[in-house]
Amino acid sequence: METKDAGVLKKSDFYFELPEELIAQDPLEDRTASRLLVLERDTGAVSHHGFREITEYLRPGDCLVLNDTKVIPARLLGEREGTGAHVEVLLLKRRGTDLWETLVRPGKKCRPGTALRFGGGLLKGTVLDTVEEGNRLIRFSYEGVFEELLDQLGEMPLPPYITHKLQDRNRYQTVYARQEGSAAAPTAGLHFTPALLEQIRDKGVETAYVTLHVGLGTFRPVKEDNVLEHHMHSEHYAISSQAAEKINRAKAAGGRIVCVGTTSCRTLESAAGEDGEVCPGSGDTDIFIYPGYRFKATDALITNFHLPESTLVMLVSALAGRENVLNAYQRAIEERYRFFSFGDAMLVV
User: Fold this and answer.
1) Could you count the other beta carbons within 10 Å of the beta carbon of residue 292?
2) pTM
3) Is 165's pLDDT higher than 70?
4) Can you list the domains of the chain with their CATH numbers?
């Protein structure tokens, strides 16, 4: 794990009061209609805009880095064979052919050997083992194509703070989602449309796509009061030679690397050398970024507004300064910005 000692950082250092009504429950009809708060990290200055104005903050020669992971309908509702008792399974990470690490509710009733069925038996599963954090390894059996069954039986794994039913599952998906495997959306990317991306490219801004399959560990609450004792779950990432070349070329020419979302940022910081050069390749990362961390590749960040005391707020604070970020969040609350996955955006420059 790559971190830098920042002394004692307390979870409570990243707390703020958030009125519940500011948690966005539904996506806006127009993806680009979100608001945009711009935070200048050197001065702490805050200004308010519409997301479409993002183009005014991007310069020719910059490189916009986007995470092209695709959320799978990973939430399966089924029953235990024999008892018919209700069970909910969330697919977290593929561990092999038809083998998945999952989060099961209720977990205590699903010991190794427990048989599960979904869709009246179209899909069956057997619990093989209990692993880290009480997750279950499940081997699935079925006829046909697993992805097609998942599309038929699964639901989008919306975060627990979203209580409204999602009418269109594509709205919890970026318009450039390609690589299937996420248990959650890289939500900073939800604000972009093909037309806006075209406008950005027309301005002379390069776009590079990387992949990080978002696991629920990203959203797992920090339980330890000492932030440094928090353990991040690993997530799979991949950076193609073409993407690395675009990023490194922009950096070498003096352009800024603008990450769309904390997931893109964590991917680059996992793959960059001390000189800032990004290496192509794939692997697992459990990088935890908090104040004191020295960024190697990221120059600017587009992100949503995150939960109090979350690792995501800590990452943004590492880039922009904790006091600057908490002040910006307070301004956002006063201005009634929409928070979390379907909420408004923030640009740190």
Assistant:
1) 13
2) 0.92
3) yes
4) 11-71+168-348 (3.40.1780.10), 75-153 (2.40.10.240)
